[in-house]
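Late entry, written up from scratch paper. The run itself happened at the end of the previous shift, but nothing got recorded in the book at the time, so transcribing now.
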Amino acid sequence: MTSSSFADRDGTIWMNGEYKDWKACDVHVLTHAMHYGSSVFEGQRAYNGKIFKLEEHTERLFASADTLDMTVPFSQQEINDACNELLEKNNLVDAYCRPVIWRGSEMMGVSAQHNRINAAIAVWEWPSYFSPEARLKGLRLNISDWRRPAPDTAPVHAKAAGLYMICTLSKHAAEAKGYDDSLMFDYRGQVAEATGANIFFVKDGEIHTPTPDCFLDGITRRTVMDLAKRRGIKVTERAIMPEEMEGFEQAFLTGTAAEVSPLAEIGQHNFEVGEITKQLMFDYDALVRGEL
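Output as recorded:
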């Protein structure tokens, strides 16, 4: 039986070029990343034994590390190979893959030019986040009190660990009220994203989604936009104001974990789980499993 703690599991983790026992992969309490947020990561999904868009995720991982002034001591190919080999070593087919890069404990303080740059990858079993039946009911979102920061105040286009603190606070607040997640506005008060997923709206047969100028332009986001265009559905990226939600008919989230998840409610606004949303959900499910 799998332990409820991620620190107490059986399996193999790749860490700094070596395959190690899961429970032996510890870092020191004075690791720079723990105190100053100097860490970047990726979230990837494997379907039928193949990691979806692995190369794109690794490219973004390296771009995020570069943004945080960290030189990864491994090549992108070495990271890709380790991800694939971990699936085999852990006998996983449908799984989640988490590469992470972080500064170690050689220096303790804001400056950390001489800290070792560490890398690790863990994989674990993760079937569909929501069943098709559950997703078709639509998720309920609270509206967060926290806002996504401006591009000149944080490295908003990096998948950096520190940027997720307000996401954790927002999701905790939502779940305490009985919601599934929170919608976050940006520093201007425009609709931005959920705590770990991008958002889309549907009106009059067309799709509208916020321009990702202060949050991640998700890999799943771009994939779903391509799927919509294949179907001849117009997709517009633009600024979306909160009051516009009243006029949208459908809404859905996209992300590695969320995949394509329809929304039934955002605050006081209600949405139907319509045909465009369902079609994209089914198309995405087929694509990641090599059926499209």
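The CA atoms of residues 76 and 130 lie 31 Å apart.
(Scratch paper discarded after transcription.)
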